[in-house]
Every structure is written in C-alpha cells, then in structure tokens.
Amino acid sequence: MESDLKQQLRLVDQELHQVQDQIQSLLQHQESLLEQQAELQQLIASCRDVAAHDENGNGPGASKSGGVNWSGSFEWDNRAADIRLNLFGIKSYRQNQHEIINAVMSGRDVIVIMAAGGGKSLCYQLPAMLRTGTALVISPLLSLIQDQVMGLTALGISASMLTSTTTKDEEKSIYKSLEKGEGDLKILYVTPEKVAKSKRFVSKLEKCNHGGRLSLIAIDEAHCCSQWGHDFRPDYKQLGILKKQFPRVPMIALTATATERVQTDLREMLQITRCEKFVSTVNRPNLFYEVREKKANGSAAIDDIASFILDKYSKKESGIVYCFSRKECEQVAAELRKRGISAAHYHADMKPETRSSVHMRWSTNKLQVIVGTVAFGMGINKPDVRFVIHHSLSKSLETYYQESGRAGRDGLPAHCLLYFRPADLPRQSSMVFAEMAGLHNLYAICRFCQSKQACRRAAFFRHFGEKIQKCNGMCDNCAFTKEVVDTDVTEHARSLVSMVKESNDVEQKLTILQLVEQWRSQTKKSDTDAQLAKDLSKDDVERVIVQLILDGILKEEFAHTAYATNAYVALGTGWRGLLQGTGNRKVKLEIVKGAQSAKKKSKANTAPISEEGMTFSGLGSALDDLRQNLAASHGGIFPHSVLTSQHISLLASQKPVTMEELEEVIGKRIAEQYGNEILVSITDYLEEHPADTENGGAWIAPKGKRAAEGPSTGQAKRVAKAPSDKPTKAPATRQSKRVAEGPAHDATKTRSIKNFLQKSTKADTDVGPSNTARSNQTPESFGPSTTKTPTKRLSLPRPSAISTPAPTTPKEEDVKQEAGKVPQSECIDLDSDSEGEEDQPALNGTVFKRENEEEDVIEETSSEEDEFSLFKRLKRQ
Ligand SMILES: Nc1ncnc2c1ncn2[C@@H]1O[C@H](COP(=O)(O)OP(=O)(O)OP(=O)(O)O)[C@@H](O)[C@H]1O
C-alpha cells in the first residue's frame, strides 16, 4: 500500500517538475515576447518620426508635437545662441539639443535619451541660464556633481551643490538664496537622497517656487528611476513628489539609454506622462567594438591585454579595464604593472584616500589605466578615454553599452574590447539570477559574444529598438575577414545532454567545467564516441554547453550555501526534443578557422582605425600641450575645462590669429580667460612651421591609419574622408590660404600679433579691460593669473610626451607602492590553466564570493561623500 502511494507521489513529483519546466519556459517566452513587443513599438514610433521628418523637411532630430515645431524660431533664439557660443564655447547645436532647449524654454516636461558624450548637460544648463531663478539638478553621484559644479564655476556660472560635504555656511547661503532670492544662484545640484529625505530642503524649494524663482528641474541619469534600468536607485522613486509640488516648473529627465519599458517607468514615476520625448541615436560611430576569446590561462589572458595596450597606446592614452571582482582588479592591475603599464586598481573596498588619489592620478593623466569593478562607473567624466577593456563579461548588453561607452566621450576614435570565455558565464549568472530578467539579459550578451559574424553595432540597435545603421567597419565582425564555419555539433550536444541527464538521474550536480572535464575524459575512452572528443577543443566544448543553455536545451540551476551561490547545469525544456531527434533539431556552432585579416575597404568601410592609438599632431599637439599646462597652472582643473578636443581640432584647422577670430571658434568667455596664451601658441607654431598647411593638426591615427569621423566638426569629417593614408590637406581657411601664399607674409603677420599681444597685455596690467570680468571670479576657478605673460613663449614640458615607462619616475614609484598593497595571499595563480578554479570548491560547484557589483556601487555612493573633500584637496595640490 505504502509503496503504491510512494510510486504515485513520484509520478506527481515528476509531473510537477515537468509543469514547472513548462512554466519556466513559458515565462521566458513571455519575457522575450514583451521585449520584442517593446522593440517593435519603438521601431514603429521611429518610423513615424522619420515620416514626419520627411514631410516637414526637417532634420532627423526635428520634433513637431502638438502643433509645435521645436526646430522653429523662438523669441530666445538669439540670446540662446549668444550664451551657447560665448559662455559655453559651443559653436553649434548637436542633434536634438536645439529642440530640447526650445521645449524646456516653452515650459514643457521633457525626456531626453542621448548617448554618452552626446551633450545632455547643455540641454538643461543653457535653459537654466536663460530662465529667471535657480535650476535644480538631481544627479546620483557626488563625483559627477562635483565635476559639473567645477566646470560651471570655471565658466563663471554661479553653481552650487547641497550634499553631505557642504559646509554649514555654504548651506546657509544656498538656503537664503532659495528662500529669499539673495545672490544669483543659477544652478543647484543635489543628490536624490536630499529630495527624498530632507523636508527642510523641500520646504526651501517650495519658497523658491512660490517666489517664482525655481526655473527648471533636471533629473540626470534618469534611468536610475526604473527597476528595469541597469542602475536602479531606490531614492529616485521618491522624485515623483517634485512634479506634484511644482506642477508648473518644467522637468527634464535625461539618460543615455532607456528601453521602452524604462521610458514608461520614468514617465510614471516622475509623473510627467504628457512629456515631450527626444531620442537621439545610440550609435557611437567613433567606438570600435571587438570581442576576443579569453585564454583559459590567466597569465596568457593578461599578456594579451598588456600587449594590446602597449602596442596601440604607447603614448599612455587613458583607458579602463573592468574586472569581475575586487580581488581580480588587484591581481590584474598588479600583473599589468609587471608588464610595464602604469595601472592601479579601484574598487569599493579601498580607503577613500587611496581611491580618490587613484581617480585623481588617472583623471590628470598621471596614471594610464584604472582597473576597476563596475563601481568605477557613472562618475567618470573623463572625455579622452581611448580604450575600455572588459576582462570579464558584463551582466547585460545594456550595461556593456554603458560601460564601454565611457570610451571616446570626446567623439574621437576609441576601442572597446571584451574578453569572453564561456566558462565566465556562471560567475555572472550566479550573481544575477535573482534579478528581474537577470538571466535573460545575461544570455543576450552571451549571444553577442558567441557570435563570430553578426555586426556588434547592429546588436545594440536591435536591443534599443533603433533602426539599424551602417557600422562602417567599426566592429571586429565587420572589419575582419575570417573563415567562419557553421559547424554542426548536434551529436556532441546529444552526448553532453545525455551526460547531464545521467548525472541528474543520480542526483549528481555538475558545473559547466566539471561537465566539460567529465565529457572529454569519458568520450575519449569510448569506442564509439572517441571521434567526438577529437573534433572539438576544450574551449569549443565550453561554447557548445553555453550554446545549449542559450537555446534552452540545458539550463542553469543555482544552489546557495552560507557564503556563496553555486551554478550547475541541468536539463532545460528542449532536452527531450534534442535527444529524441524530434523536429530535426540541430545545434550549430560558429567556429573560426585560421587567422583573421582586415577586410578590403568597401565604399563605406574605413579601416578599423581604433586598431591604432590616436593623438593630435602639428598645431593640435601644441594646443594639447598648452591646455595641459594651463589646466595645471589654474588650480589643477581638467584640461578639457580649458579647451575641449573639438576646440583643438577647430583651432588647428582654422588657425585664428586675432582675438575676434578666436572668439568665433571658442566663444568670448574662454577667449577672455585663455585667449592670449592660445594666440601665442598658434602664432609661435605658425612662425616655426610656415609651410604647415597640412591636416591642420587635427587628430591623426598614428602609423598612417585614417581617422574615423570624429565629433561633428567639419575638420573631423574631412579627415575621415581622406582617400589615402597621407595626411589630409587642411580646408581652404583664411589662414591656410595665407600660409600657402608665402611664409614671409605670415611671419610679419604673426609678429604684429605678438606686438599686439604685448601691448594689450600691458594695457591689461595697467587698467585691464578683461580684469573687470576676472575680478568677479574666484581665485579657485581661475587660478594664478598666467594670462599676464602672454608674450613669453610657453615651453613647459608636455606631460603626455613621457613616452616609454621609466621605472624610476615618481609615477612608477607610486604604482609600485600600490602593488605593494596587494596581499600576496589574495593573489590567484595566473599561470594555472584553471577554469576559474581559484573561486571554486574542489568538487561541488562553482562558488563565487558575494562581492557583487551592486554592493560596490552602493558602497561607492556612501564613501564618496567622505572622498569629496579629499578629492578637492588633492586637486588643489
Ligand atoms: N553642440 C556641441 N558641440 C560641441 N561640443 C558639445 C556640444 N554639446 C556638448 N558638447 C561637449 O560634449 C562633451 C560631452 O557633453 P556632456 O558631458 O553634456 O555629455 P553627456 O551627454 O552628459 O554624456 P554622459 O552621459 O557621458 O555624461 C562636453 O565636452 C561638452 O562640452
């Protein structure tokens, strides 16, 4: 009787398992359908936009909504143009900026989706300058806030922040300004916590609004509102109260990426359901995407990374290497240092002083590479990051887009390199499986990595629901020719799945790596299957297993211990179909045979320029030196706060030689601050290179490679279109024409400019026309008054000119000190040919310590508060 019942129970259990599998599979299917639905809706919306654009004859960013053509003329146009050029130093608007500014100025709520480096800040900073009162900006990280406030202060804009680092006196004066309108505070930055937790602050805001002085509210990194976004912050959820309290104040929510679902969340949470939406392309044409197979041997993998950096970035161009765990960061940084690269680790488990110092050294180009966990993320404002390397897989395509997108924010060529090894999958999956759609997102990036043929860029377009655009050879699969064989591995797959079934039947759990080992050793011994083992390398077997997981034939299962989560392989929903051969189910694997070579250039295809480093040449290089020196002598501000790379490119091509000409390129404010030095640098250069009509000193890719299209400057385009490896001729600007006409003419001209400068400097010192403006500036903003000696040739050493690493430089010593901090006991054996065994128990599964990145990020946010004063102090030193 009892045995009958037990038999029945077993049957019910079995059926329950099957039902659960089916539910799981249906849920996955539902998830993927929802995703497709969102993507299709977005595609339909963008088709409508294109149709509207065609009808109206407006540009792609033009937006006409509710009868308003945001690209049209508005009463503030002239004032806006004046502030744009003369205050912000920006010559023309980029896609959508003008329209967004018009919508905000018209009092509308707006969602802005614009890629990293696209120019989101201008969209709220410019209206903040145009409108009366104070703009409130909510930003998630102190480091971001601090950079923005410093940048604005350097431009002479009254900007402050209210954070835990604000002194009582500063707070008092900010509150007075909000309450009574004292002072002229134009932009106030706060973290979301301030809005969510400080009643006092909200009541001051109410007073500010009551007095008609709350000009607008900007929510930066707005994707943090949504649980569907990649960086959810609970405090962002509270921001809905702002619209409730201040319904008439325009709100602008900005983010680099937001799927349709995230956008819906944003609208609802911020209570701006009737807002205008401006979506710019996610395309970053200057980024070259590449996925490489990561070698199983840890040391060989680092060798690969090191030679990539040393070969292509020998001028110490900045880069980031992302790692999975803190321990891995320390080890990889130490190994890179051993290979002659100036690198330091960065993660949440470091003293605030050390973290701040690493960040500072990297920001000021004294350290080439930061090796960080994803905790080193959102706060990065450095525009000239030339490469982002992922030593380990990201957790989704979206996070990869964000993390790799920290490269090339200045619009110049940069390289995004991801090292993928299928055996890295369980490390990530054991971290994300509990997240909503965690596995679904992780498997999407695995598919991206497993593919040897599909365009990487197209994967991003599809993911973000955007129409596919040309890649122009800017990813490995489009740039390189390789023989990819679509290999039928159905038999191998069957054999692997049988093995999983057998072990599951006896309740034995297998990790991916254990399955690989067991399968290889058993098939080698088998009379019938020995050939199967010979067909595939160990790496290929790992790839087949991951492919089976991606196809739902196998699945991952997770088991918890007190300290870790273990990932195992189990039977997925499709295993029966494969084993029974129903539906002619085939399993295919893309296998690359032989070496890859660069594809022949097609009409659209440029050379993979990011294969090479990028640097300025000629006058561009002289101006690059100058901005480094000026930044250092002006209280250690960032070089791009003096001149952006776009400015340098324009100056190098247009070669202005009078203050008026210079103002046309960089605007009055920057010209007022640094104009004399810039003109001296240009005239000196022209004097020394009278025949320099070539290239104009724009950025060049060394070793004769062509540069990709840079930021939206005419010069960038011209360089990109150069038909040969020869440097491109400068456009026929006034100056280049003049130079071409004869050096004698120019020499006279440059001498007279020098005379003029000498005179004007003297006048400056005596009565100082530009002193009036400067007298209002804080010493910290503008530093020592180097503008007083413009005629003296600036010949300070060029920081970036330090070529090969010299072990005795203080910089290297710093780095060695960092190395000394890595406890030996924590170092993995990089020579072992292990499958990540350093993190695994001997027998029973893949164990990963819970050093997850979320923890890192949270820690960073809190400890960054403490770091701020340190950061400021270090910056001043
Ligand atoms: N219209 C423009 N023309 C030239 N440069 C511009 C323009 N608009 C903005 N920039 C410059 O582009 C750079 C990036 O701008 P910004 O920091 O606003 O980007 P972002 O969209 O906020 O990027 P991220 O999401 O990475 O923070 C800045 O140096 C900014 O001065």
Care to describe what's here?
The protein has 877 residues and is α/β, with parallel strands linked by helices. Among the domains are: 1-45; 93-279, Rossmann fold (3-Layer(aba) Sandwich), CATH 3.40.50; 287-475, 3-Layer(aba) Sandwich (Rossmann fold), CATH 3.40.50.300; 485-592, Arc Repressor Mutant, subunit A (Orthogonal Bundle); 618-690, HRDC domain (DNA polymerase, domain 1). The protein is built from 34 helices and 22 strands. The strands form six sheets. A seven-stranded parallel beta sheet has the order 5-6-4-7-8-3-9, sandwiched between helices. Strand 1 (64-65) and strand 2 form a beta hairpin. The structure holds adenosine-5'-triphosphate. Adenosine-5'-triphosphate (ATP) is lined by residues 90, 92-94, 97, 114, 116-122, 256, 383, 409, 640, 644, 646.
